[in-house]
Structure formats: structure tokens, C-alpha cells
């Protein structure tokens, strides 16, 4: 049986919400040592991603109290939990990305993250 995205994703994923402050996002990313986090709504649906360099920039320019929604990236490549491993590997390499959210096909709910080793 073929390995699928859902078999290798991290299921416990720290995320922020659009109404959180950039300061909150900065503190979270520092604590979990990540270069980016998913942005989800109250129901867990993926809204976008936030990069660490953006939270640092917000802090350095006196904008730490701005909301995540002003800084998040809305165009995010995602994969299905059923995507086969070979296809997933190609997907990551072709896009030169190190991390991709796994989302529920119907509702767009964040299920996990796959990080390239």
C-alpha cells in the first residue's frame, strides 16, 4: 500500500488567527522555533500563512500591534491528505517549498503540515 500525505504529516500544528496581533505571532514562532505558521479561522479552515521574517519586520517597524490579516499571505499551495508520497515529493521540489499544509478537500480545514527534511 502506498504512503500518502496523511501518513507522514504532523498533526499537532500551531497556528494563528487573522485577528491575532503580530506580536502574538512572533512570540508563538519564537517558542515553537518555526519560520512560518498557518493562519486559520475559528473553525480551523486554512486562510493563509504567516512568515517569521514578516513578524520580525513588523516588530522592527513599530507595527507589532497590527493584525495578522494585514500581513498574511493568502495564496498558499496545499495538498490533499490522499496525495501519494511520490506526487507529494514532486510537488515540494517543483515549487521549492519546504513546508505545505494538508487540508480537508471539502471544507478546507487544516489537517496537518508536511515539512521537507
From TrEMBL:
InterPro entries: CBS_dom, CBS_dom_sf, tRNA_nt/polyA_polymerase
Every CBS domain range: 9-65, 72-117
Pfam families per UniProt: CBS
Domain of life the protein comes from: Eukaryota
PROSITE patterns: CBS
GO molecular-function term, one example from the UniProt record: RNA binding
Single Gene Ontology BP annotation: tRNA processing
Protein name per Swiss-Prot or TrEMBL: CBS domain-containing protein
Cofactor: Mg(2+)
Keywords: CBS domain, Magnesium, Metal-binding, Nucleotide-binding, Nucleotidyltransferase, RNA-binding, Transferase, tRNA processing
Coiled coil region boundaries: none
Signal sequence segment: none
Keyword Transmembrane included in the entry's annotation: no
Amino acid at each position: 500500500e502506498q504512503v500518502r500525505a496523511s501518513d507522514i504529516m504532523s498533526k499537532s500544528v500551531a497556528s494563528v488567527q487573522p485577528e491575532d496581533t503580530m506580536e502574538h505571532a512572533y512570540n508563538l514562532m519564537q517558542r515553537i522555533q518555526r519560520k512560518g505558521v498557518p493562519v486559520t479561522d475559528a473553525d480551523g479552515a486554512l486562510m493563509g500563512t504567516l512568515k517569521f521574517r514578516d513578524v520580525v519586520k513588523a516588530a522592527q517597524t513599530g507595527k507589532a500591534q497590527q493584525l495578522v490579516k494585514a500581513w498574511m499571505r493568502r495564496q498558499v499551495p496545499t495538498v490533499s491528505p490522499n496525495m501519494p508520497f511520490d506526487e507529494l515529493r514532486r510537488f515540494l521540489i517543483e515549487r521549492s517549498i519546504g513546508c505545505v499544509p494538508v487540508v480537508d478537500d471539502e471544507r478546507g480545514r487544516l489537517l496537518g503540515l508536511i515539512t521537507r527534511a
